Amino acid sequence: MPHAVRHEPVIAVLLPCYNEELTIGEVVRRFRETLPSAAIYVYDNNSKDLTALKARAAGANVVREPRQGKGNVVRRMFADIDADIYVMADGDGTYAPEDAPQLINVLLTERSDMVVGTRRGVTDDAGRNGHAFGNRVFNRLYKSLFGTDFTDIFSGYRVFSRRFVKSFPAVSGGFEIETEMSVHASQLKLPVSEMALDYGRRPEGSSSKLSTFRDGARILWMFAMLMKETQPLRFFGTFALFFLAASIGLMIPVLVEFAETGLVPRMPTWVLSIGMLLLAMLSMMTGLILDSVSRGRAEQKRIFYLSISSGRAERPASGQASPKSEPRKASRAA
């Protein structure tokens, strides 16, 4: 009996970079040593230093993405590159390339669509207390809004299946892209895993591109937008409760005064309370309608996700004929 041909997955290493000339060469070399069969891609996001040159000299395929922002780079990488397994890391050297085989192993053995390398030192965050505080706040907020699938939503070290990459819409433009990835997985209830890894510090002379307040505000805005898109009833229901509480608060004194005197001397207050009540009703109806739309969109996303080959189909063991080979044998015998 013929032996089944073993299929080796095609692995692509994706490294979005902006001004990382001090570290990118070493990162590429270590990934080449750790994953010798993988294709390594460095997407240079308008670097003003020698990032592209150092990456190319180290053996990476270098592509320039002119739209500024990590989200724009990730969207371009996911669209351009075809592979079975995608390893995404940062080019600053804070993630160890030597951990990639473990992440890939988790992806394959647990049949996950995304494995997140959570950072053991995330509360230190390379010495920046503002980042550490933001990580704690946003991770707790994520759990309360979208679920408990993740403990480190901002980790840049991730491994994806082809099915995840090609079904991910990637609408974010900046550092909030990791949040969007996490919400996409939580909304569709995709199989995901986490693995705790050591998180290094940048070398001397290398600075973080993350702005505590600017990017924190953008991430908070992304939380609100993703909640509106994925949980509109909860989102607009919150506004409805606010308007309803305001309406009742304004209405009660007017009603009490009317019951005592039979007069409504504060007509503007009464009109405002009725307006608040109408806004509450309008917000609730908006949430109900958009909730149905959101469910339909989620179903379509799920169907599209399932239409993409996972690349993990069970193959016959050595010495066993594949199901498709039986008809061919029968036809020869006939």
UniProtKB/TrEMBL annotation:
It holds the Pfam family Glycos_transf_2. One of its GO terms (molecular function) is glycosyltransferase activity. Residues 13-166 form the Glycosyltransferase 2-like domain. Keywords: Glycosyltransferase, Membrane, Transferase, Transmembrane, Transmembrane helix. Its EC number is 2.4.-.-. Residues 311-334 are annotated as: Disordered. The keyword GTP-binding does not apply. Residues 325-334 have a biased composition (Basic and acidic residues). The keyword Glycosyltransferase applies. It is an enzyme of class 2 (transferase). The chain crosses the membrane at residues 235-256, 268-290. This is Glycosyltransferase. It comes from Mesorhizobium australafricanum.
